[in-house]
Write a structure and sequence with these properties.
11 helices, 8-stranded mixed β-sheet, 2 domains, 6-stranded parallel β-sheet, 409 residues, globular, alpha/beta, Rossmann fold
Length: 409
């Protein structure tokens, strides 16, 4: 047990002692939206409620080290996990969930993840960005008391969620909620409870037209009781087709639609980290004759990233948050995702499907494996690629797709 664990435990005890003086007891019960609505007051209730469903078709384009994928599947210790792994790899997969926006009188919101608490001190499931089981080091539900809630005039809409500091989760679990508030007709007059620590968070809110004076920063020690709390549903790692269309339309509306989509991008990592291509320089040299340019997204403002992907004919990159920018590609672009067999989640394939892109999954040989969960088949490793094989595959995909793009045009 490391020093960091004891530091976290010490901070938790200090926070509990401080909050106990004038704070409120941490909720111990949760309530579903239906349970809450059954006893909601006359000025509370649903502002929007619907069902969303979609399917990622089977027969995905997958190539590369298939033997490594079979070896990973064999390490999964249960048949359900193995079936899910192969479904993630080949499809099909179906998604379905309820979407809603509710209005709470006397509700409260706390923490940087958006802990939503009803007037009778219960956690609103499906709308809260954190649960007791979340491993977040500042999880407020592990404290005995929350800070004293501060009253706030007007309506406050929750736009944050667990893991919102991650680029992909920011879009999928956070900004996608904005569509629901707008459809419910409650966005015009609300302030927004949202994390604004990272530059991409602040810039995306600006591009979406949310003025700084309407932002209430979500922080670990914040606890607010607005006159009216607006809460939407959210789902982690699930972007519906409507979400993708909304984010594409709203974040590219300043760009001309008739610009040529002719850039070929290879997403390179500036610093080694999780899921790095250990021989990425070899791959860049192999792709250069096809007209690919190296792109390091960490060094670019969000507006530049949006512009790059909006003008992309083809994107090649390893599984990681940078591929969230496939949201901004135009229909018909080619997306080549290079993944470790230890992590074959279909989140970027779903974005590509919703945006009418052609998605290909290239499985690399896993090296420097860091961890692996035998129950789920999800882990992390670096990637060793066959640069020549990927170059030939990309050349074939581009040659195959170009006539289809001309026909569609």
């Amino acid at each position: 047990m490391g020093v960091s664990h004891w530091q976290r435990e010490g901070r938790r005890l200090v926070d509990s002692l401080v909050n106990r003086c004038g704070g409120v007891a941490t909720p111990h019960d949760a309530v579903t939206v239906d349970e809450w609505a059954a006893s909601a007051g006359p000025d509370e209730g649903f502002r929007l409620r619907s069902q969303v469903a979609w399917q990622l078709p089977g027969g995905r384009s997958v190539a590369g080290d298939l033997a490594a994928a079979e070896a990973v599947a064999a390490e999964i210790d249960n048949p359900i996990g193995q079936a899910r792994y192969r479904q993630h790899l080949w499809g099909p997969s179906s998604r379905s969930h309820e979407t809603f926006v509710v209005s709470l009188a006397g509700g409260r919101v706390a923490h940087g993840t958006g802990l939503v608490v009803t007037a009778d001190n219960r956690v609103l499931t499906g709308g809260s960005g954190i649960a007791v089981s979340c491993p977040h080091p500042t999880n407020p539900l592990r404290l005995s008391h929350l800070p004293r809630p501060r009253p706030l005039a007007g309506s406050l809409a929750v736009l944050t969620s667990f893991a919102g500091k991650n680029y992909y989760h920011w879009f999928a679990s956070g900004l996608a909620r904005l569509r629901l508030y707008e459809e419910a007709g409650v966005a015009r007059d609300a302030s927004w409870y949202v994390a604004v620590n990272a530059a991409f968070q602040r810039e995306s809110l600006r591009l979406l037209g949310i003025a700084p004076e309407r932002i209430v920063p979500a922080t670990p020690r914040r606890h607010l009781r607005p006159e009216r709390l607006l809460v939407s549903s959210w789902r982690d790692q699930q972007l519906a087709p409507e979400d993708c269309d909304f984010l594409h339309r709203r974040l590219t509306r300043h760009l001309a639609a008739d610009r040529p989509a002719d850039r070929r991008l290879f997403i390179m990592r500036t610093r080694p980290g999780r899921r790095s291509i250990v021989n990425q320089s070899d791959l860049m040299r192999a792709l250069a004759p096809l007209g690919f340019e190296p792109v390091r997204l960490e060094r670019r403002p969000l507006a530049e990233q949006i512009d790059l992907f909006h003008r992309a004919e083809c994107v090649v990159g390893s599984h990681g948050a940078g591929l969230t920018n496939l949201l901004f590609c135009r229909p018909g672009a080619v997306a080549v995702e290079i993944a470790t067999p230890c992590r074959v989640l279909p989140c970027f394939a779903e974005i590509a499907h919703h945006r009418h892109l052609y998605h290909h999954l290239e499985l690399a040989r896993p090296v420097n494996r860091r961890h692996f969960d035998p129950a789920t088949g999800i882990g992390d490793s670096d990637l060793l690629v066959d640069a020549a094989a990927i170059r030939d595959r990309v050349a074939h995909l581009l040659a195959e797709r170009r006539p289809a793009r001309r026909t569609a045009a």
